[in-house]
Every structure is written in structure tokens, then in C-alpha cells.
């Protein structure tokens, strides 16, 4: 999928992306609201080496401190430091848990140690940081004291002398103070993370659905997939169940689409125009009956004598669409109970309808019979065009026998509903019985807002005539009373 295709998929599946974005932002806000604030207090220590006034000794002491300061930082989280702090401040925690909230770092080429303490209360974080710094200084100075002075901790005076004997001295350069605000949660950062996460999640789901979705979304994709000519694209209309028929004086997008289908069908077969055309689809629900009915109406509108045959003997719908009688029709003729002219019904000046008749127990055998071929030939001799509405190809075998008797077939494909595999199987089925597929009809295609090109009411509407006023140079436009 290229970038253009991906952007079109995002536009087509924008509800998925919006839902993911809303959920991610909601999750970020929930995390922010439910998280306990954490505060961070920081103190800093300076490590000095006890030397004399000699410059050489001072430089050596500086190098000594820099070499050992990294090791000092690792002592901050040991039990020698944390256990006395817990006891001194009366904290309700363990030394190990306190150590997990303490961080000590020593910047390179310096003799500084930064101690950071995190806690849920700002004042307590500052107290713990200062207590850790004091205890840490005492531990380091004791460890760096000569062995002869390490045992002189019996009294306060001897402890001071032991500290004086230490090779290093730690001083606080910055005491910890209560932080003004928490370091977490960070509402803005969480919101940004939620937005980015929602966008990535939405894009991922759209890409996944596009990968798993094998339906055909556009007529161009259908043409590239089947290599069959696309004779028409019928836009989706929510009013079709209530008003399935397109009237001759209607100028809607759907009406114009059927007229375009009629024109493309006539021009695509100029040398050998088919007289008997079967209209079928891969599976039910693709709109084949509606396509057959309105194509027949459109052909009759041009003055061609047209016959519409309901060849779907399992779920016939043609008679009910026109409000005609269904009990007598094709099956009545096939079993010899009536002649064609006896059961033929009129649906217009140039349109005759042969209903299905009673539903038989063996539709496949009837439609593939020699008598069916005779009926179609007789209809072709009487009418200029015969449109046969057939059953779907994949669920039943009725259409294969009937389509082989026709001179061409139209394959109806429903937008975003029919899968590629269904279209491929249907086309291969027709090819195996040597049926000439005239082309495809892409049905129930989405209508893009703002794209009114091709509707009679906008593109085909005649401009208003100009009426000149004898006293004015400018012309005023007046609308026509009736649309053409």
C-alpha cells in the first residue's frame, strides 16, 4: 500500500482513527488523574581531600578525589546509609524500598555527588535527602579513615578525632528543599503521548483492516482486478428500498448512472450487439435485480422494445418491484401451461415483463433446458433487447446453465461488500461455460460530497437565458420554469 492509498484508507475509515484517538487521550487523562504525585528533592555534596599547603599534594588530592568519587556514589543506596535514615526519621518503609527511591550520580571530571530522593510528599522528600547526605558523608569519611582511627568511636570526642583522621571530607554544597511541584504525572506529556499513541494505533488498525479487507472499494480497483470493462458505476441511494425504480423524467445521480450504463453497453458492442443479456452477481445482496430492472427501463426509454425476464426462480423480485402478478410467468411457459403472450405483462409503453411464475422444485434443470433456449429465442425475435435477471452465481448452479443460453452477461459487484475471491470465482465460472462477459457494474458506490459532476441538476442544467432591458446595458438572468 503506497502513501496515497494509505491516506485514502484513512479518509475512508476515519471513524476507526477517531475512536482510537479518543480512547488513547482518555487513557492518558485517566492515568494522569489516577497517578499519585511524586516529588523529587535534590542535594549536592563536594568531596575534598585532606592535604597540606603544598601545591603538588593538592593536585594529587584532586586526582585522588576524582578517581574515587564514582565509587562513593555507589555507597549512597547501601544499607549502611538507608537503615539509619529510616530509623532516624521514623519512616514506614524498608531500607531496600528507600534505596529504590534514591539516585546518586557523580558527573565526570568533577568531585561532586548529586543525591536525588523521590517521595509522595515534598517536605518528606527534602528531609530524607538531607538525612541521606549527612549519613552518607559519615559513612564515607569513616571508610576513608586510617585503621588506627577506625576504632576510636567510643565517645563524641574520639568520633570527631576519627573523622579528622579521614583522608577525605564531604561537604554539602546545596541542601535539599521541598519541591514546588511534582515530577510525575506530567499532564501535558501524557496528553502528547496519548495523542501520538492514538494516531499510531488508529493508523495501525486502519492498515491492518485494509490488509485483511479484500473487498473492492472503487470501480478502478475492480477494473484492474478483473481486466473486464467497467460499464457503469451506480451510486448508493438510501431511498432505493422505498423507490427502487428510476423514472424517465428523473435527473438524479442514480438515474444518470443508469443512462450512462445503457450508453456504455450500447457502444461497447457496436459490431455484435447482444440481444439477450443476463444480469447476475456473485452472491445475494449486490443489487443485481435492481440493476436489471432499471437497465431495462433505461433501454425502453430510448424507444427500444425491451423484455425483462425474471430468471431468478428461487427468490423472484421483478414482479413485486413493478407491482405485477408473479404466479404466472416463465415457469408456466416452460412446463407448457401457457404461451408467452398469455403471461406477458406490460410495465410501460416499450417495456414488457415476463415474471418468474410459481417457484419450481427443480429450477436448475428448467433454466438449462432446451425449452428455455426456445423461449429466449422467441423473445429475441419479438423484442429488440431481452434482459434476464438471474440468480447469484456462487450459492446455486441455476445461472450457469441459463447464462450459457444468453449472448452476454453483466456482472454486478457491490462496493466494499463483494470480495476479490468472490468476483474471481464468479468470472471464472462464467468463463468455464463460455459466457461472454460484457462488463461489470459497480453498484452502491459511495457518493463523495461536493462531487456533483454528472448529475443533471448541476452539470446538465441549462443556464438561464439572458434578458436584455432596453434601458440598461447589463443583462439580468432569469431561471427556467422547468428543468430539462
TrEMBL record:
Subcellular location: Cell inner membrane
Residue ranges annotated for the AAA domain, each copy included: 275-415
Residue intervals of the Polysaccharide chain length determinant N-terminal domain: 1-89
Membrane topology term: Multi-pass membrane protein
UniProt keyword list: ATP-binding, Cell inner membrane, Cell membrane, Kinase, Membrane, Nucleotide-binding, Transferase, Transmembrane, Transmembrane helix, Tyrosine-protein kinase
Region of interest (Disordered), residue spans: 145-164, 462-484
Domain of life: Bacteria
Principal location listed in the UniProt entry: membrane
InterPro entries given in the database record: AAA_dom, Bact_polysacc_biosynth/exp, LPS_length_determ_N, P-loop_NTPase, Wzc-like_C
NCBIfam families: eps_fam
Name of the protein this chain belongs to: non-specific protein-tyrosine kinase
Species name: Streptomyces dengpaensis
Upper taxonomic lineage: Bacteria, Bacillati, Actinomycetota, Actinomycetes, Kitasatosporales
